[in-house]
Amino acid sequence: MTMSRCNEVKRMMEKKQKRYPADRLKLHALLEKKEKELASLREEVEEIRKLVQQADATAINATAAQYNVTPEQLAEIMRRLYGDKTKPVPDLPTEVTEAQELREEKEDSIDDENA
User: Fold this and answer.
1) How far apart are CA 42 and CA 47, in angstroms?
2) Cα separation, 23 vs 19, whole angstroms
3) pTM of the full structure
C-alpha cells in the first residue's frame, strides 16, 4: 500500500468532526431537537432496563425450577459461592403476618370441625 493510500485510509477511519450552524436561532433549534431525542432515548433505555430485569428474574426462576431448588437453597448456594453479599430480607409488615395467623387459625378450626 502506498503512503498516500495509507493516509487516505487513516483519514476515512478518523471520526469526522461535527459541524454546527453559526446562526444562534438554528443552534437553539438544534439543541431543542437533540434534547427531545435524548429524553426519548432515556425513556427507551429505562424501558429496556426493566425488560432486562424481568428477563433476568425469569431466567433465575427457570434455573431454580430446573434444578428443583427452593429460594432458601438458592440463597445458600449463592452465599457459598460468593460470600454473604446480600442484604437481610426485611420482615413482613404486621398486617401481613396477622392476616397469615388468622388464616392459619381459621384452617385449624375447620380441620377440628371435620375431625
Assistant:
1) 9
2) 12
3) 0.51
